[in-house]
Amino acid sequence: MKFLLQRFAFYLFTLWAAITLNFFIPRVMPGDPVSSLISKNQGRLTSDAIHSLEVLFGLDKKQSLWDQYIGYWQQLFKGDLGMSFTFFPTPVSEVISQSLPWTVGLVGITTILSFLIGTALGVGAGWKRGSWIDSLLPATTFLSSVPYFWLGLVAIALLAGPGSWFPSSGGFTPGLVPAWDHYFIGSAINHSLLPAATILISSMSGWMLGMRNMMVTVASEDYITVAHAKGLSDKRVAFSYAARNALLPNVSGFALSLGFIVGGTLLVEIVFSYPGVGYQLFQGVQAYDYPLMQGIFLVITISVLVANLLADVAYLLLDPRTRKSG
Amino acid sequence: MTRVLTRPLLEIKNLDVDYGLGDEAVKAVRDVSLTIHRGEVVGLAGESGSGKSTLAYGVTRLLPPPGVVSNGSVVYHPPTGDPYDVLNLSHHELRKYRWAETSIVFQGAMNSLNPVHKVSVQLMDAIKAHEPTSSKASRLARAKELLRLVGIAEDRLEAYPHQLSGGMRQRVMIGMALALEPQLVIMDEPTTALDVVMQRQILGQLVELRERLGFSVLFITHDLSLLVEFSDRIAIMYGGRIVEEAPSAAIYRDPKHPYSEGLLRSFPALRGARRELTGIPGSPPDLRGMPTGCSFHPRCPKAFEPCSTDLPILGKPDDHVGEPRTVACWLHPVTAG
Ligand SMILES: Nc1ncnc2c1ncn2[C@@H]1O[C@H](COP(=O)(O)OP(=O)(O)OP(=O)(O)O)[C@@H](O)[C@H]1O
Ligand code: SF4
Ligand SMILES: [Mg+2]
């Protein structure tokens, strides 16, 4: 418990540092990109919107830095991240909350699936070396070493396009209204298959290889020999003794990869023009949409920190040796 | 200490164990025959690398790859029923045989416990694997009893291995080895990581348990002085072969093989796992290039003319009368057959 509280305090500190950095970056940027954008959009912005941008980017030069800082935090706590220029006049928080479910849905689910399938295959390959599962490895390793960008484009060129069942871009059929009905959900699933498959292919073998090698390492441990000597069933030795220990290093890796769901999806979403956070970040960067970029970086920071905390909790739950201070 | 022992429990016959195949193979155990009788403590001694652990692994079919038993048999005599060769058991039969008939405490007893499971789980899963219909309560009761047997407080059942001291872990392993009341317990240097006082204490307890429960023990160690004290018979291994086998007192009083003599004269260090043998000059043989004849001849102070060319066979020396004992040395010629 004490350990977790320490970690939690550390992550809070990191969050504070990241946000403070976020506060200073626009203030030291040369030129004044945001105010020039504001003046370009003169007349389209309400005075409230201008005010919130001034707070976020420190345009109000009359205020002291300290007062700016206080105002910045107050505004963050209200959830006001300013106005997006790309998706004018939608507030950044709304833009992000529209795209986040797509990213979490596609990349979140595939990250979990990739971990589960890769780990299961790794257990099989490492436990029965030389079996058919083991012989998959060179193929999956090759696929994972192909740059993702290229893999996605090849998948689109070969499988998507006119007359194909796989759509090549978007998150759902244009014209459908997002709703919880079977048209929309069916279309969303249909659109996610190709990107999901490419993510699985490129990320699964990492888990598989890691798990296989850990299984091989663990298999030579004394306690595995003891488990065999005790006459335990193969299944119990493989899972409760070998896999259970081999999993430990992979679990924290998995928790960390959950943190990169939001930040690491740029390529997937660009290749498939998928309406998630990564694609939006891409659009935001092209349009110098500083408020949107700042908002997304904030979300990425938070998700990485939460994932780190998850990794700590998982380790604590799975490895009794870390529970010493109980 | 010595007793009349007639009924065999485990007969190892002409066992060869190699690591690897073909010309590259390391011949770690050669032509070993050794019989363990019911209720007997047999000691196995020899320098590091002489093949003691390999023999134990071979007998229990736990050899890590690339180890293979290339020749011989291991005949087990169950309390009831016909004897059978352990090396011929099917996968399923072997699983039933293990731990219930022969259990083993490994050299690495420090790492023999799974770090992620509680002691209770690891004691109980062995019982469950062999008595699937037993109730959880009865298994727990048995686990408690086992800990009590080896002098550990019951509440340690809920401990994880890292919460136990090294000595406690080894006691747990010894308790675990007794979980199914096996006929034979093989102990491969179960006490090397402990200090001498602790070693004696554990061994004393073990011999006492043996008297009560009636199992046999194959006890493996570098430390011949320990064996002389605790075992009925002692076999000495050199370069993968047994070079002498005799009742403990006889070996102590009158070692016939010059290597046994050297082992007896060497002083084990007070503490620590690896021991320098001060009584014997030179170093153990390289298994890849074994000396011809008696493999001990380059180091033997008494080597003479036949030693470097002819292999002495293990058998009862012609000049010996009294308790059965065997030796493989040209100083004590054996008439074959
Ligand atoms: N996995 C392996 N592959 C190849 N050779 C091995 C392997 N394990 C052991 N050996 C060799 O077999 C020989 C016997 O080893 P073993 O472990 O049986 O000796 P030991 O008598 O138990 O020694 P110690 O007292 O140090 O435990 C050694 O020469 C060792 O180098
Ligand atoms: S056979 Fe020769 S070399 Fe070998 S132990 Fe006997 S005397 Fe020494
Ligand atoms: Mg050994």
Automatic annotation (TrEMBL), chain A:
Pfam families: BPD_transp_1. It is a multi-pass membrane protein. The chain crosses the membrane at residues 7-25, 102-127, 148-168, 188-209, 254-275, 295-318. InterPro entries: MetI-like (IPR000515), MetI-like_sf (IPR035906). The keyword Transit peptide does not apply. GO terms for biological process: transmembrane transport. CDD domains: TM_PBP2 (cd06261). The keyword Nucleus does not apply. Belongs to the binding-protein-dependent transport system permease family. This is Peptide ABC transporter permease.
From TrEMBL, chain B:
One of its GO terms (biological process) is peptide transport. Coiled coil: none annotated. Keywords: ATP-binding, Nucleotide-binding, Transport. Transmembrane segments: none annotated. GO terms for molecular function: ATP binding; ATP hydrolysis activity. CDD domains: ABC_NikE_OppD_transporters. The keyword Ubl conjugation does not apply. SMART domains: AAA. Residues 12-264 form the ABC transporter domain. Belongs to the ABC transporter superfamily. NCBIfam families: oligo_HPY (TIGR01727). PANTHER family: MALTOSE ABC TRANSPORTER, ATP-BINDING PROTEIN (PTHR43067:SF3), OLIGOPEPTIDE/DIPEPTIDE ABC TRANSPORTER, ATPASE SUBUNIT (PTHR43067). This is Dipeptide/oligopeptide/nickel ABC transporter ATP-binding protein. It comes from Dactylosporangium siamense.
